[in-house]
Structure formats: structure tokens, C-alpha cells
Amino acid sequence: MTATWHIRAATASDTQALIRCIDAAYKPYAERIPDLPAVSEGCAEEIAAQRVWVAVMGETTVIGGLFLLPQPDAMKLANVAVDRDHGSKGIGRALIAHAEQESIRQGYTVLTLNTHVAMPGNIAFYTRLGWTETARHGNTVSMRKDLREAGHV
Prior knowledge:
Elements lengths: L4 E5 L5 H16 L12 H6 L3 E6 L3 E10 L4 E8 L8 H15 L4 E7 L3 H9 L3 E6 L2 E7 L7
Parallel strand pairs: 4-5
Antiparallel strand pairs: 1-2, 2-3, 3-4, 5-7, 6-7
């Protein structure tokens, strides 16, 4: 039997599992990137503000998460993480697609994100999904995706 997963809005009861998922997903990067920010910080507050979605296996096993932060001119994809045991199964791609749909639902036509220059795999992943690099400042790589050009709006 194949296990199934789905994406839903995060609830307070997901907080600790989501923190563990994020910390595990970023662990290889945290070990080699000294200036990587605390990626799971503020998780409970963002869930309470209804800005977080989780990928769950069954009903309660958190295997990924997505954080969106509304900005004046664009929706910011603040964080996306997938449990390393569930990588390469389309979960990250599905979370990004959910971010696009949710951004449109909230009236946005542009998504932005920042990633780290020492994460070239992430930069390549976003590029394959239609994101464009817009700037580099120090170790920060800024990217954007125009949802109108992508045919979503």
C-alpha cells in the first residue's frame, strides 16, 4: 500500500513536528553555512497568523512545510522545507504550486524569495520552476516569479 500525503493549513498542534521537519531538512546546510538564519524560528507565531501550510502523510505526520508572508507588492515565499526522508517525491514542487495558488487567491501576481548562495541546488530547483534571479547581495540570492507570465493569472 502506498502512503498518501496532502497539503493543508497548519494548526498549533503541528508546531513541534514542523520545527523538527524544518531543522532536519536544513541540517546539512546548517553544518556548512555559518551565516544561515535560524530557519524554524517564529514557527508558532506564523502558524497562529495563518501563514503556514504543511504537507502531511496520513492525518498528522508532517513531512513538509510552507511559509508565506504578504508584502506590499508581492507575496514572499519565506520558507519551504521537506523532510529529507521524503525528498524527490514531488512534495517540494507541490508546496511551491500551493504557494502560487494561495498567492493568487490572496490577490498577488508576484512571488519573491531569498535563498543562500551556498545552496546552488535550491537556486537550480527554483529556476526550473520558472523563477528568475533578481539580485545578489552578499550571500543572499533574491528571486521572483511573475504568476501572470507563468499563466496562473
